Amino acid sequence: MFATLFRPSLDRAMRAVRIDSLEDQDRAFSWEDAEPVRPLPRKPFSFITALIREKFLGRLTLMVLAVVLGQTIEAFEPYALKAVVDALTAAADGKPIEGLGLTGWFLVLLGIWFGGIGMYRVYQVIDIYTSPSIRALAQKRMFAWLMGHSPTYFQDNFAGKLGQKIKQGANAILGIIEILMFDVIRVLVLLLVSLGLLWTASPFFSAILGVWMLAYVGVSAWLARHCFHLSEAMSDAVSSSSGRIVDAITNADLVRGFARTAFERSFLGHWINEERFRSRRLRWFLVLMRLFQMASIILLLAALIWLAIGRTLAGQMTVGEFTLVFTLAFQISSTVWHLSDRLLNFFEELGTLSEALEVISAPHEIVDAPGAKPLAVRDGGIEVKGLHFAFPDGTKVFQGLDLSIRPGEKVGLVGRSGAGKSTLVKLLRRQYEPQGGQILVDGQDIAFVTLESLNAAIAEVPQQPGVFHRSVGDNIAYGRQDAPQEMVEQAARQAHAHDFILRRPTAYGTIVGEQGIKLSGGERQRVAIARALLKDAKVLVLDEATSALDSESEHLIQEALWTLMEGRTVIAIAHRLSTITGMDRILYLEGGQVVEQGTHSQLLALGGRYAALWHRQSGGFLAAAE
């Protein structure tokens, strides 16, 4: 009955998920995971507050109440001990025992022990259904924002580092919340109750505790600021070294192929040494903080107990009141000392979360324009008007490019490396933003349509196809996730991938490995082509779509691609000119401008740059060998 909660696009994933219990529902794909991306706060406490307000305010309030009640009950333990000692003293002196009596106060003491323990167990039970959910929501929010960054952002950051930031940041949130809600609140409640109890024994002792509290908190806050910066630097060093480890592992074959294992060890050693240096600085500072905290606690203990002994010997305090002061002093010292240790963890976690948000929550480089509407593709016509684009380093690519591609026209782009072929495709998909000019699809300026709809309208088969570490069937179905298995297999047949898939023991359920490592280059390319076939978009981009195939496979794929091209606008980037000879028009780009255009035969008859390139490819190698 829960199936209606999920979109049709999740049907494929749901086939493997059985929803019978609350835990199963938590594991299942949920509709909320497809909600619009929300802005990600850049400050740690702003992010934590946003998460709590969204779903967890009620549960966290109950957890705080449980801690307050538990610590309040425990804080009265010294008072109950005082009453027991006073009752014992009265009994020893043969005086009448006032109040609840010895048995009564013992039962009160027993109730305090069980009451405090009970409240903390309530806290833990509520936390079972809170902390894992907070961590999951934090990861979802950070991942959603991360995926909205432009290709340039991902080129500038290690993939392993970004993934680690999401995990580290989410785990840090739990540590921060637990310390604030459990440890800090416990100490605050204990100190407030202790002030009140000490006031009953002696206002003088209460004043000493109050002054100590102010001094301790003030100095600790001053030290905390420096500790936070050191923790942030430490987190950054850990992420950097981790990212480089992942980078080396990902390219293990390259390292072996060039016999550069020793070099990589030395290169990585620099970053690990930097991590060690920053860790050492942080640890030295933590030692100094602990020294201050220990000295402060010992001085408090010494002052309270020494003064209590003097007043007791002078007859100004009863033995029970001395017990109250003595027990409170040790209770306060042990709790504050525990908090001191936890505060060190707190600033480490805060530094980790801050550094993670600093990297992930950076503003998106390319965003939807205000009031952007979905792209409505009817025919697939493309028009480029006065396009200007230069890379951030100043390298100019297009300076006033004009280009028109008719609906259903098949256009090939050729030219030397750096001519702007791939850049033009990236601009079409708004992976880069131009500095001037327009690109229109069916008369709609792509700068004013939603990015999601623009990418949905374009199918692309790149030269290096991306493949998920999932089953081959899921990789093909990524082009249309609500497609039935029959359509997936039909697309695979058209891409001539069906036969090699069936040769695997688990057929379409075969896990292809990271980056499709278990598939050959040609097999990965055919999976990508099948995925594009299944997407069935009106605009098709082919970036050397047959470059990784052998001659026989290339012939079969070309047949499938021509079938796919029918009725669609096609832009094909090619370095091997033989793959685009049948295009309606071929554009030769040079210096960001179209210097030649026409059909294959027209360009050969022109005898220009295209013809020269064609002759080099078709006969140049043979001539050089003669």
Mean pLDDT value: 79
End-to-end C-alpha gap: 75 Å
**Highest CATH level, the class of the largest domain:** Mainly Alpha
Give me the CATH fold name of the largest domain.
Answer: ABC transporter transmembrane region fold
Q: Radius of gyration from the CA trace?
A: 35 Å
Number of domains: 3
Give a description of the structure:
- By secondary structure, the protein is an alpha/beta fold.
- The chain folds into three domains: 1-31, no CATH class; 36-360, ABC transporter type 1, transmembrane domain (ABC transporter transmembrane region fold), CATH 1.20.1560.10; 382-625, P-loop containing nucleotide triphosphate hydrolases (Rossmann fold), CATH 3.40.50.
- It is 62% helix and 9% strand.
- It contains 21 helices and ten strands.
- The chain has helices spanning 11-14, 22-27, 44-75, 77-92, 101-128, 131-146, 151-156, 159-201, 203-250, 252-257, 261-313, 319-360, 421-428, 451-456, 472-477, 485-494, 498-502, 521-535, 551-565, 600-606, 609-625; strands spanning 382-390, 396-405, 410-415, 436-441, 444-445, 458-461, 539-543, 569-573, 585-590, 593-598.
- The strands form two sheets. It has a six-stranded mixed beta sheet with strand order 6-7-8-3-9-10, sandwiched between helices. It has a four-stranded antiparallel beta sheet with strand order 2-1-4-5, with helices on one face.
- Strand 1 and strand 2 form a beta hairpin.
- The longest helix has 53 residues, at 261-313.
- The N and C termini lie far apart (75 Å).
- This is ABC transporter ATP-binding protein.
- Keywords: ATP-binding, Membrane, Nucleotide-binding, Transmembrane, Transmembrane helix.
